[in-house]
Amino acid sequence: MSALDRVVKPKTKRSKRFLDNRAAKLNENIKNAMLIKGGNANNTVTQSLKDIYALKKPYGVLYKKKNMTRPFDDQTSLEFFSKKSDCSLFIFGSHNKKRPNNLVFGRMFDYHVLDMIELGVEKYVSLNDIKNSKCPEGTKPLLIFAGDAFELSEDYRRLKSLLIDFFRGPSVSGIRLAGLEHVLHFTAVDGKVFMRSYKVLMKKSGCRTPRIELEEMGPSFDFVVRRTHLASDDLYKLALRRPKALQAKKKKNISHNTFGTKFGRIHMQKQDLGKLQTRKVKALKKRPAEKTAGAGEDTRRKKPKQN
Predict the structure, then answer these.
(1) Of 129, 130, 29, 41, which Cα lies nearest the Cα of 88?
(2) What is the pTM of this model?
């Protein structure tokens, strides 16, 4: 048993709060990310990790020291750092002759590696190279995905899910219009993934809704997908399972259409139209003579026909 796997009993109130924060909850904490550079990381990889960390702040940990590990061969080092820093997302940056400017995006499940996708940086524009105003720290971005590959290929579907997990930020019930300041756009074309970061400019339009313009603020990446390490279908399904307390209870006879309109179905007994109450109009009102004549016809018995 390792030092991180043993059961620790809190001795102080501070350590008890720390362990309670890490304990399993119905509504989990915000996913934190750790950014680690390998022992042979160059300047491009180092600066890329710094720029991604600037987008992820304050929900990230940037390790400055180099780590001699290979995620696709041995994941024990990543799992150790994940449990130590309480991070469920990670990026590992490395550089070598066979795979230059390499970034490995991954996520954990129960402090074990679930998915890993290796992306090579073919073109990179730093956050500092674009001289425009930047978004404040901790801004929740809008995520846009373009390209049929994100729906047709299993690797790209997992990559889309991984990028959403990495950049979506905290879950909120509502957001004001002025808070929509940052847009991250991902485009999948011809085996490559283009990542662009924009700042939203809201200008006067003469009406209540402002005119929207996008201004590139960086960083900018041109990725190429290299190696993948995907979880099995059973493990992936287990990782997506939600507690029963959070599952929405199904309501009978209520349905929704594609536009979100709510429909309800009412079950009623068969209605007798003869007893239907209609509007009383004086012209349709029967006279007393007609009422007595109608009553007499109903009570009169019909005689059987003789052959």
Answers:
(1) 29
(2) 0.72
